[in-house]
């Protein structure tokens, strides 16, 4: 009897111990998670309470000192570059390990390993686009062409790995505990992959949509609704700039046969609306102190842990500080004792699609000119948590991977399209940042940029010696007018890119007479630039506001520049609203609710401050009107893009009764006024509902800016309803999910003065007091002190650690 | 008295060894301890349970108080408990059951080893 009793209890005990160590569906293993000595409770402890005076880091040539300032920003003092980057890897992993690994898992198409079959489609897209394939090419390229940088990449990886090997369960980032997996070792490949992932986040193309539009509208109407150079564009390189080079010849084939199908394919995910950036530099002639001032604020998806991680990296040769990307070496947007630089996305169509005609079902050969060319197969093994691995066969042509085929995103079995993208060619973006970090002059900046391929960026520059500059850098294909705007026939060799624009012929400017340079994702040049430049997503509003402010400003101070970064002027509203009110006329005079809104709109000063009500009303009314104007286009089954807001406003202003406003399938002839009135009616309905349910419709409350944890399901790790102004198309580009992911202002005087902030915190741990502590300041337009520190400076030190 | 002592010693055992050992090693230690000390059935069960439960509750409370972190609240929301108090209770409850069953197993194991009926040892 007592044996049975013992066995029953023993079985129960073992069953209990096992069941709390196992994952059930989405419920993580409970005991390791709740164990207060190893589980999540331990992640409640902030970094300063865990501070250690000494940590072991092997393979250093001499000891490295790490000083944390009161914001937990580490300042790394090392004697050699290899030591510096080994320590950067170690320290970054210490604070951001989960995030850097998760992002590269996403980039490698390996999310299914962590979350299961839910992410399979996402992983397939990532792999079929060839991101990891491009990173493999990048590794080989760097190994062959730049072995010194490769050693530094390996030193960084080793630093990360030494941290992983020392990591105790208690300090394992809480996301690993919840999702029940462990970090794997870092590699140079992963750092390179991360930079490819940035390209994927920032580069899109609308070839599919434009192919459909061409079919639906015809060339003439397409050019009218989607002009490549709309009136009033202000390019990045000042208009009238003289191009001092002899351009390479590009020959346009005399006849072009575009694949003529109207394509119903799910398009690939595109960079989200709101992804953009501002940067500018003003020369000493316009500033109060006589020193150049540089500003940069990249707008990306607002996430926690923040995409950026601030650091100072110091060797005896230089001291650089700014925003790093966890996983990549050096500082990405920052400054040193001599120069400062920043980046905005230089959107340009560098991704093209070719229709592939396979010889037969086996897909081993495809037509190219008169011949059949061989394909190769790349088998992607996607591991899936809790299930068998998924094998995805991707066919590669000399253009690149066949992304759309019978197994993927196509409703039509006969459609095959290959993607040509410069991310698949070997390149060394990392080198650019290593060189910029140590740069001293405009020449150094140019030499650094020569290594840079993708994602194309507008690199702003300022130096202590007084130079300001802007260069649009990327590896841009030489294209004839219209090339790559639509899907092309891959069987026709005349459709190939004809080479690349040489680096020295990329658009750039140095010390222009207007006294400033600026970029905000708009057209790069005026129409005199001798190469074909096209993109669907050029921005029209932020750049004009920045330029008009910078032109009129004098005796500029750092504070003025900070205020400009936080500027809420809603230029789109300022241009559209008067026209809309005019078109609306007196129709709604007898409606009290309508009169209330119209009065609010008429009194509004066009600033999108958080407490204003005008922006909410305008935003809704505009969106309703816009979708009404282009209703017929958006009713198409095939994916398309709509004309820009800017062009739509131009039509409303210049030809309000023109045929563009007429909906062909109605009996009446619509004008702009009809759409504006319809939009207003719909706004009244929406507002009635909003006022009933939510009450207050002031801007911050309406747009509900949210900074989301990288795992969207982890809602309590996100910060919701941040009270701040701005919006898409506004210099302070903070919309619901996007905004200034990093703000930096640097004055390059005898002593460099620098300020920075980002919407997050230095810690990646949701339990730390340094996880989201910058957000309130960021939302208010405040900055942190980012001045360079010396190793022996004592004020404002949180703690310091010796690595040896 | 022995019950309180057993509870106290189990808690102490958790406090000393849990920082270095996983919960299942701690369970094993509690079982061995219970087998050595020899509390009976229900006594072992509740004393072992209370010992580990209190140790886990105490450590969780200590960490959240000292750190002032809102992570317990966030985890409570995430796990659908809604509050950090519930999460504290769940942690303590889990500790209780792990400790209780371990101690009971140990105590019953001791009984197995006794070759003769209990009463022979009466007064021992």
UniProtKB/TrEMBL annotation, chain A:
<dbReference type="GO" id="GO:0016811">
    <property type="term" value="F:hydrolase activity, acting on carbon-nitrogen (but not peptide) bonds, in linear amides"/>
</dbReference>
<dbReference type="InterPro" id="IPR043146">
    <property type="entry name" value="Penicillin_amidase_N_B-knob"/>
</dbReference>
<comment type="similarity">
    <text>Belongs to the peptidase S45 family.</text>
</comment>
<keyword id="KW-0106">Calcium</keyword>
<dbReference type="InterPro" id="IPR014395">
    <property type="entry name" value="Pen/GL7ACA/AHL_acylase"/>
</dbReference>
<keyword id="KW-0479">Metal-binding</keyword>
<dbReference type="GO" id="GO:0017000">
    <property type="term" value="P:antibiotic biosynthetic process"/>
</dbReference>
<dbReference type="InterPro" id="IPR002692">
    <property type="entry name" value="S45"/>
</dbReference>
<dbReference type="InterPro" id="IPR043147">
    <property type="entry name" value="Penicillin_amidase_A-knob"/>
</dbReference>
<dbReference type="Pfam" id="PF01804">
    <property type="entry name" value="Penicil_amidase"/>
</dbReference>
<feature type="active site" description="Nucleophile">
    <location>
        <position position="277"/>
    </location>
</feature>
<feature type="binding site">
    <location>
        <position position="352"/>
    </location>
    <ligand>
        <name>Ca(2+)</name>
    </ligand>
</feature>
<dbReference type="InterPro" id="IPR029055">
    <property type="entry name" value="Ntn_hydrolases_N"/>
</dbReference>
<protein>
    <submittedName>
        <fullName>Penicillin acylase family protein</fullName>
    </submittedName>
</protein>
<keyword id="KW-0378">Hydrolase</keyword>
<dbReference type="GO" id="GO:0046872">
    <property type="term" value="F:metal ion binding"/>
</dbReference>
<feature type="binding site">
    <location>
        <position position="349"/>
    </location>
    <ligand>
        <name>Ca(2+)</name>
    </ligand>
</feature>
<dbReference type="InterPro" id="IPR023343">
    <property type="entry name" value="Penicillin_amidase_dom1"/>
</dbReference>
<keyword id="KW-0865">Zymogen</keyword>
TrEMBL record, chain B:
<keyword id="KW-1133">Transmembrane helix</keyword>
<feature type="transmembrane region" description="Helical">
    <location>
        <begin position="6"/>
        <end position="37"/>
    </location>
</feature>
<keyword id="KW-0472">Membrane</keyword>
<protein>
    <submittedName>
        <fullName>Uncharacterized protein</fullName>
    </submittedName>
</protein>
<keyword id="KW-0812">Transmembrane</keyword>
<feature type="transmembrane region" description="Helical">
    <location>
        <begin position="85"/>
        <end position="109"/>
    </location>
</feature>
<feature type="transmembrane region" description="Helical">
    <location>
        <begin position="44"/>
        <end position="65"/>
    </location>
</feature>
């Amino acid at each position: 009897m007592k044996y049975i009793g013992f066995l029953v209890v023993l079985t129960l005990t073992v069953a209990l111990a096992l069941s709390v160590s196992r994952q059930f569906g989405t419920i993580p293993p409970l005991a390791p998670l709740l164990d207060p000595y190893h589980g999540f409770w331990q992640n409640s402890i902030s970094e300063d309470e865990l501070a250690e005076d000494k940590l072991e880091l092997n393979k250093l040539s001499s000891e490295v000192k790490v000083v944390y300032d009161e914001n937990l920003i580490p300042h790394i003092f090392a004697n050699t570059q290899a030591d510096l980057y080994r320590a950067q890897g170690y320290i970054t992993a210490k604070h951001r390990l989960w995030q850097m690994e998760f992002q590269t898992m996403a980039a490698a198409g390996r999310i299914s390993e962590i979350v299961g079959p839910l992410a399979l489609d996402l992983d397939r897209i990532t792999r079929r686009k060839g991101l990891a394939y491009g990173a493999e090419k990048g590794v080989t390229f760097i190994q062959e062409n730049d072995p010194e940088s490769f050693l530094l990449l390996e030193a960084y990886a080793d630093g990360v790995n030494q941290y992983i090997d020392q990591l105790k369960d208690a300090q394992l980032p809480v996301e690993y505990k919840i999702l029940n997996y462990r970090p794997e070792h870092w590699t140079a490949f992963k750092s390179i992959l991360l930079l490819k992932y940035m390209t994927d986040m920032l580069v899109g193309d609308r070839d599919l949509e434009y192919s459909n539009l061409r079919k639906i509208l015809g060339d003439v109407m397409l050019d009218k609704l989607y002009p490549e150079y709309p009136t009033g564009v202000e390019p990045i390189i000042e208009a009238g700039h003289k191009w001092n080079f002899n351009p390479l010849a590009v020959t346009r084939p005399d006849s072009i046969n575009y694949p003529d199908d109207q394509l119903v394919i799910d398009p690939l995910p595109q960079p989200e609306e709101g992804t953009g950036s501002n940067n500018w530099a003003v020369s000493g002639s316009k500033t109060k102190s006589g020193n150049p001032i540089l500003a940069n604020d990249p707008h990306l998806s607002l996430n926690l842990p923040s995409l950026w991680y601030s650091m100072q990296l110091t060797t005896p040769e230089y001291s650089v500080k700014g925003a790093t990307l966890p996983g990549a070496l050096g500082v990405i947007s920052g400054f040193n004792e001599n120069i400062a630089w920043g980046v905005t996305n230089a959107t340009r169509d560098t991704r093209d699609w070719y229709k592939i005609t396979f010889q037969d079902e086996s897909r081993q050969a495809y037509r190219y000119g008169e011949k059949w060319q061989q394909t190769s197969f790349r088998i992607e093994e996607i591991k899936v948590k809790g299930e068998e691995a998924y094998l995805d066969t991707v066919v590669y042509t000399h253009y690149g991977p066949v992304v759309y085929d019978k197994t993927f995103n196509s409703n039509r079995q006969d459609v095959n399209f290959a993607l040509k993208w410069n991310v698949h060619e070997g390149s060394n973006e990392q080198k650019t940042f290593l060189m910029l970090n140590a740069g001293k002059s405009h020449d150094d900046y140019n030499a650094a940029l020569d290594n840079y391929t993708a994602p194309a960026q507008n690199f702003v520059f300022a130096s202590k010696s007084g130079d300001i500059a802007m260069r649009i850098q990327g590896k841009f294909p030489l294209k004839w007018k219209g090339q790559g705007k639509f899907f092309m026939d891959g069987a026709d060799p005349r459709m190939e890119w004809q080479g690349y624009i040489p680096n020295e012929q990329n658009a750039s400017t140095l010390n222009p007479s207007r006294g400033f340079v600026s970029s905000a994702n708009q057209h790069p040049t005026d129409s005199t630039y001798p190469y074909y430049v096209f993109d669907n997503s050029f921005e029209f509003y932020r750049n004009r506001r920045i330029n008009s402010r910078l032109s009129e400003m004098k005796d500029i101070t750092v504070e003025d520049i900070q205020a400009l970064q936080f500027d809420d002027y809603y230029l789109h509203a300022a241009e559209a609203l008067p026209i809309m009110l005019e078109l609306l006329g007196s129709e709604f005079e007898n409606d009290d609710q309508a009169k209330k809104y119209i009065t609010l709109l008429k009194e509004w000063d066009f600033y999108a401050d958080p407490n204003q009500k005008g922006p909410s009303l305008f935003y809704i009314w505009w969106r309703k009107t816009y979708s009404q104007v282009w209703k017929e286009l958006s009713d198409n089954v095939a994916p398309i893009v709509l004309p820009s807001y800017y062009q739509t406003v131009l039509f409303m202003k210049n030809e309000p009764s023109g045929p563009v406003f007429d909906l062909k399938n109605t009996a009446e002839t619509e004008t702009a006024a009809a759409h504006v009135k319809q939009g207003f009616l719909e706004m009244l309905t929406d507002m009635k509902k909003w006022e009933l349910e939510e009450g207050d419709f002031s801007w911050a409350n309406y747009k509900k800016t949210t900074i989301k944890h990288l795992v969207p399901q982890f809602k309590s790790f996100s910060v919701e309803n941040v009270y701040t102004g701005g919006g898409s198309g506004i210099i302070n580009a903070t919309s619901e999910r996007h905004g200034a992911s990093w703000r930096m202002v640097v004055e390059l005087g005898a002593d460099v003065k620098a300020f920075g902030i980002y919407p997050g915190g230095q810690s990646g741990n949701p339990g730390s007091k340094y996880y989201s502590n910058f957000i309130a300041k960021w939302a208010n337009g405040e900055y942190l002190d980012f001045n360079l520190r010396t190793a022996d400076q004592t004020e404002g030190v949180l703690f310091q650690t010796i690595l040896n | 008295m022995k019950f309180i002592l057993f509870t106290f010693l189990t808690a102490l055992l958790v406090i000393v060894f849990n920082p270095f050992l996983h919960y299942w090693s701690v369970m094993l230690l509690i079982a061995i301890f219970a087998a050595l000390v020899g509390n009976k059935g229900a006594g072992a069960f509740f004393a072992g349970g209370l010992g580990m439960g209190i140790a886990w509750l105490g450590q969780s409370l200590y960490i959240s108080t000292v750190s002032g972190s809102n992570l317990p609240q966030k985890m409570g929301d995430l796990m659908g408990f809604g509050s950090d108090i519930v999460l504290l209770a769940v942690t303590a409850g889990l500790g209780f059951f792990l400790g209780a069953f371990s101690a009971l197993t140990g105590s019953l194991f001791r009984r197995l080893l006794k070759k003769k009926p209990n009463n022979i040892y009466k007064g021992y």
